[in-house]
Amino acid sequence: MNKLILNEWIKLFAQKGIVVLLVLTLLSSLASVAIIEISDHNNRISWQETYQEEIDMYNRQLTRYPTFDEDEWENEMSYKADLMKWNNQIQKYQFCLTNQIPTWDWRMSILDQYFDNLLLLDCVRSGEWTSEDMNKYFGFATDLDLLQVEAENESLMVYVLSNDYKTYNQDQLQKAEQYVIQLQEMAWLEDEEKTIALAENDAAMWERYVQYGVAPYAEDNWVSVAILHIHEHQETYINYSHLSPEDPMLEAENAEELQSLLDYCQAAVAKDLFALNNNVVSYDIQKDVYVETSTYIHYMDMSIWSSTVLVLVGIVLATIVVANEYRYDTIKQLLIYPYKRGKILAAKSRAVGLVLMILCLILFGINLLLGFTLYPSNQDMPIFTTYFNGTVYWMPYIVFVLIKYAFILIQALVMVSMAMMLAVISKSASIPMTVTILAYLLLPAIITISYGALGSPDAFKYLLFGNLNWAQYLVSNVGVPYAPWWVSLLVVAAWWFIMRCITFAVFKRREIREQ
After folding, report:
1. Cα separations (Å) of 16 from 11, 21, 23, 32, 362?
2. What's the half-sphere exposure (Cβ side, CA atoms, 13 Å) at 477?
3. Where is 384: in which H helix or E strand?
4. Are 313 and 22 in contact, with CB atoms under 8 Å apart?
5. Which of 93, 178, 272, 388 has an alpha carbon within 20 to 30 A of 357's alpha carbon?
6. How far apart are CA 253 and CA 262, in angstroms?
7. Which residues contact 239 (CB under 8 A, 6 or more apart)?
8. pLDDT tier at 154 (50, 70, 90 boundaries)?
9. Confidence band (pLDDT; 50, 70, 90) for 324?
């Protein structure tokens, strides 16, 4: 067998095109670098420039429309409303520039609320807006206490100017707890269970901000990001677990999608709580933490995506090792070897598989080296957490990356089996190569689109291209066709075995006919 594999390698590497293809595959690591550098170049703009661009945009609008234009607005009131909004936004961004408040600062959320209140007060003071107009053009409630709005804005500005997030957290927690008590004491409340659960979730968020002593909504702090993640996922879980009976998501064909969404939210909350409780940042959190330039994690994520070129390389190699025997009429010479035909075909498959495995390891090593060299990070190296059967498990981030490379290698080996089967049947390279590549690139999307349109048929769970994405089980975000991990594993193994059996059966019978 080793001699046969060596023979296949000699024939492969004797072709200059194959050597060039393998070199280009290894150089594909540079594609990740290029993509990140281009992205950084296009998005590398300071927060001051961001604000100034916004100010300039609104000023251009004011200059462009100095008077009401009936072609642009339905009436003069809608025109005046837009003018007030534009000026309000200019004030906000100018304030941020003056007071050195960057886009990722926790105070941005307070300033959004402050300037919304300011817009409301301006509308009332102008005297030309009715309650209905303010609701229609600005979305303001009609039963607000303006004195209370003014008092709220005064307190909000104190928080902003003093950068006192600790007092802000305490005050927000007190308000949230009082609101929960108020809801619980009401004699009647629409959607009582859901409304109280959402209010309790808000209170829990502020309680965590107080407990961990971090600024709320701070995009550059992983603890703050984790707390916000927990709140958002828990809010989604509450909303989707308290649907009205008429909601389409409760229909039978959407049951699996709904359960998958609930499971994902539950897993996400558990993983982020694990990170907080153990004071260790996880990959799920770190990837959403704001940084001004790309980091090692960004590069490795991109490298995993670009490594799918291994699948395409495997398809090309698989078709060539089979089709060239027929193309150059060397198949009869191959049969001179004192080996059974099944062993000859197995050697071809193993030769391609070993090339892909070596390429995958080299590609992984190159990307590790390039990542550490070109994208040093001042962030803590995260762990990767996964949720399984009610328990959170963790692994080093590098292990997670290696596992994702292994998943891509498995995809490549499965597609190699398909390409070899089609090559043996057709005795050509172009058709199997084209069909297999198109199937790999298009069929997963087609399955996703067709699943809901066809009424969520169970048969989709047993289609090969609905089960190749094993990474989804690591992140607990299972998509169409919502097959459990063990079903996905069995389906892929079954398809691989069937394709291998067909390949060997056809190859053996064809050779008998040509002797």
Report:
1. 11, 9, 11, 26, 20
2. 8
3. strand 383-388
4. yes
5. 388
6. 16
7. 194, 198
8. very high
9. confident
Residue of 24, 32, 162 lying closest to 101 (CA atoms):
162
Retrieve residue 136's tokens.
């229609």
Query: What's the token pair of residue 15?
Result: 């072709």
**Do the Cβ atoms of 452 and 252 come closer than 8 Å?**
no
Placement of tokens 């000023």 in the chain: 59
Q: How far apart are CA 262 and CA 247, in angstroms?
A: 15
Domain boundaries defined on the chain: 2-39+298-441, 47-163, 164-292
Cβ burial, residue 386 (10 Å; 0-12/13-18/19+): buried
Q: Are 483 and 467 in contact (CB under 8 A)?
A: yes
- Tens digit of pLDDT for each residue in 40-79? 656 667 889 999 999 999 999 999 998 888 888 888 889 9
Determine contact, residues 363/311, Cβ cutoff 8 Å: no
SS3 386: strand
Q: 497 to each of 310, 419, 421, 490, how far by Cα in Å?
A: 21, 14, 11, 10
* Single pTM value for the model: 0.86
Tokens of 200: 């309790």
Tokens representing residue 141 in the block: 């409630």
Residue 386, beta-bridge partner list: 393
| Measured distance CA(347)–CA(318) in Å, rounded | 12
Angle at CA of residue 71, ends 69 and 77, nearest 5°: 55
Could you list the beta-strand ranges (E) of 82-142: none
Task: Determine phi and psi for 279, rounding to 5 degrees.
Answer: 50, 45
What confidence tier does 108 reach under pLDDT thresholds 50, 70, 90?
Answer: very high
d(CA 196, CA 199): 5
Q: Note whether 382 and 283 are within 8 A (CB).
A: yes
The Cα–Cα gap between 360 and 402 comes to 10
